[in-house]
Amino acid sequence: MRFEALNKLWDNVRDSSHDFRASTEIFPTLDPEKLAQTLEVREKGAENGAANRPAPSAQSLDEVEQRIVGRVEEEKASAYQVLEDQFQTFEGRLRNLDFEGQFGLIRQANASSLSDFKAEIASGVDELHGLRRDLKIAEDEMTSFKKQHRLDRAAKVPNAGATSVKIALLVVLVLIEVFMNGNFLAKGSEQGIVGGITEAIVFAVLNIGAALLFAFFCVRNLVHRSWLLKLGGLVGLILYLAVALAVNLALAHYREVSATVLEGAGTEVIRRIRDNPWGLAELNSWMLLAIGLFFSILAFIDGCVLTDPYPGFAGVQKRLDAARDHYIGGKQDLIDNLREIRDDHNEKIEEIVRDLSSRRQESSAIIAHRTRTIGLFAEYQSQLERTANALLTIYRDANRTARTEPEPQYFAVPYKLERLTPVTKTSEEWDDRVLSERIQVAQTELNEQIRKIGSEFEAAVEQYHRLDKLFPEAGVGTEQAA
């Protein structure tokens, strides 16, 4: 798997580090009036005051006052538990940021990504060498062929469009000859035009097919370097002329014979060709002979120029062109593959760099949120103290009004809530300045990794093109890296 360490780091970046919704409304505000009604503070104050309780000499809070203080202390303890839960959430969020783990993955990615890329390059070099060997074999074959046959020109290999036009011409020739011969032969056919066309198809295929076969496989040997093959080509030309003339004479005689003879027309045609081959009595028969020869010659010429006139030369050239195209296409595919890997690597690096900055901002936001929460808890304790004193004042005023004896002296002393001091675990937290420096170092290393991958890519492209410089006879172009 390419860039396994980098992909692991990138997947880690894409995962959310928490699932929460920040809110500062975490400590409920006590309503003194409602709490006074719940605890029946006024009623109990008046009741105890009428009984002169607590005694004037009392030094400590009575039962009602202790209930008020106890309720406030319960709220304080409950709020502190909420604060502890918040601390746990903050610690979890900070722990999930896992800067140390991120830095470790970055180091691992930096160590392995370049090696992975070089391995991909080496694999491409091996593949390209194989393609280049195939091209060299095809080049050697072409060199040997041209030397053996004393050729100093390029092979004439028609492109696909030209070949299609030539094949289309042959098809058109066959169709035209079938149609025209069919009209001529319909005169003597019992089935009329249908029968004439059926017979014409046989003669057309034989006429055009013979011209193609002789042109492509025999007559082309006239330009061969071998005198024996030249002789074979000459024999083939003579045979072609004989066959073309015989087929078209037979067709012309068959037209005349089939018009008068119902059975044995083939035998009569052979007799007439043997005794008097040029004894055609009708003008249409001579026209049929001329048309057949004309189409045969056109097909013969088309067969001769269908490919390079020198036998075997076009085949060697096609194999060379195929090997060259395979080599060029393979090299371009390898370069495109490396470019895709490089771009994918760089995109992931850029996302990781952005994620580091985002994590640092999130860390600062979490710590700031925790600080605000501690402040809220301190303020909440003050609010609880004020609530306790408000309730005690309500109770004592009602008690004082109903008393007939002096009130205890401690009635004049306000209640002091014992504050709880939150303890935060900061030993594993990153100092923002240190974190900023480490992130800067990591970003620098990642950017350097991008530069190294880019340099390796350019070196790989140059290495791929170096084969062309070592073997310039390949004639392959070089592609520009992007």
Please provide a written account of the structure.
The chain is mainly α. It has helices at 4-14, 32-39, 41-50, 63-97, 99-148, 160-185, 192-217, 227-258, 265-275, 283-304, 313-402, 432-470. The chain is rod-shaped, with a radius of gyration of 52 Å. The chain starts with a helix and ends in a 12-residue tail after the last helix.
Topology diagram in text:
Layout: H1 4-14, H2 32-39, H3 41-50, H4 63-97, H5 99-148, H6 160-185, H7 192-217, H8 227-258, H9 265-275, H10 283-304, H11 313-402, H12 432-470
| Unreliable parts | 16-24, 188-194, 473-482
Count of DSSP-assigned helices? 12
Order of helices and strands: HHHHHHHHHHHH
Major sheet size, sense and barrel closure: none
The end-to-end distance, rounded to whole angstroms, is 24 Å
Mean pLDDT: 78
β-strand number: 0
Structural class: mainly alpha
Work out the strand percent.
under 5%
Q: So what's the overall shape?
A: rod-shaped
Which range best describes the helical content: under 10%, 10-25%, 25-40%, 40-55%, 55-70% or over 70%? over 70%
- Write down the Rg: 52 Å
